[in-house]
Amino acid sequence: MSHEYSSMPHKDAPIGVFDSGVGGLTVVREIMRQIPNEKIVYFGDTARVPYGSKSKDTVTRFSRQILRFLQTHQVKTIVVACNTASAYALEELEKDTDIPIIGVVKPGAKVAAEVTRNGKIGVIATEATIGSQIYTQYIKQLNKNVTIYGKACPLFVPLVEEGLWQDPVTDEIAKRYLSELIDIDIDTLILGCTHYPLIRSTLGRIIGENVTLVNPAYETARELKEMLGNKGILNEEPPALGANQYRFYVSDGAEKFKHFANSIIKYGILSAKTINIEQY
User: Fold this and answer.
1) Which of 37, 49, 78, 147 pairs with 246 at a CA distance of 20 to 30 A?
2) Model confidence over 189-221: pLDDT tens digits?
3) Over pLDDT 90: what percentage of the chain?
4) HSE of 54 in the Cβ direction (CA atoms, 13 Å)?
5) Which residue(s) pair with 213 in the sheet?
6) Rounded to whole angstroms, what are the CA distances from 133 to 59, 136, 155, 256?
7) Is the alpha carbon torsion for 263, 264, 270, 276 positive or negative?
8) Residue 116 carries which DSSP code?
9) In whole angstroms, how far apart are CA 268 and each of 30, 44, 53, 246, 275?
10) Cα 144 to the chain's mean position, in Å?
11) Quick check: 148 and 135 in contact, CB under 8 A?
12) Closest Cα to residue 146, out of 109, 182, 177?
């Protein structure tokens, strides 16, 4: 049997989702909520996290290995649930495969371009995502009359991963990072890293209720559902009882990953399997 991708994938085939680690689980959570019949194969590159401080070449090489791994699971589509990998590797990945691929940057950029009223949009993200100017490029294509203010927030990811979602330390750091965006009077803020929805309430409280928060995890799941529908590969039937609907793979630290995943996704993640991603 050939494992080559055929032009018409089966509705029943899983969706492949990958991230540099655990942040992409916020995207998985949204896919589970919005398209509950879909199977998901998730890969978190926990051995090589973070991507946000690495070069474009490195992130692209890692992403290609993960693409090859996900293809062994006959996925019907791939979601790059990492802003850095979406910024650096998406175009290269699209050249490597016929499988439809969506990243988390475009869906968030689209919504921000639509909802802003005063044309001042803030983006908080990793250094790589901010440095790539990717949000600026996309938003400007959609709406020329906006100004985008990027702010790298490198401390948010470790705070989130330590579980300090509601903590005075996180409040303090958020006030520091967001103060200049508040002074500029932005009216829209893109949570440009998949970890950030986990501290959404903190960010919302500090930035103020007049600012619309854009959560790319939510928007990506919405776009994914629409894309699957348009291509006729949305799964209308729930998976058979006993089918392993959600499968999780990591490159290191399966136990730690499982613990964190269970704090985000309430379905009870039974297992995460460690694989050697360097083989792909």
Assistant:
1) 49
2) 999 999 999 999 999 999 999 999 999 999 999
3) 86
4) 19
5) 189
6) 16, 5, 20, 33
7) negative
8) -
9) 15, 17, 31, 10, 21
10) 26
11) yes
12) 109
Nearest by Cα to 123 from 72, 84, 178, 85: 178
Q: Which two tokens stand for residue 166?
A: 């509601």
Instruction: List, in order of start, the domains of the chain with CATH numbers.
Output: 15-103+219-279 (3.40.50.1860), 106-216 (3.40.50.1860)
- Known catalytic membership, residue 153: no
> Helix axis angle, 25-34 relative to 216-230, nearest 10°?
50
Length of the chain in residues, anyone?
280
pLDDT of residue 244: 85
Nearest by Cα to 116 from 15, 18, 188, 32 = 188
- Which amino acid is it at 279? Q
Amino acid residing at 212: T
Catalytic residue (choose from 22, 75, 78, 82): 82
Instruction: State the pTM of this model.
Output: 0.92
How high does pLDDT run on average in the chain? Answer: 93
Residue 193 bears catalytic tag: yes
Which of 101, 193, 211, 265 is an active site residue? 193
Q: ω into residue 50 within 30 of 0, thus cis?
A: yes
Measure the CA angle with vertex 169, ends 251 and 253; round to 5°: 15
Count other Cβ atoms within 10 Å, centred on residue 253.
18
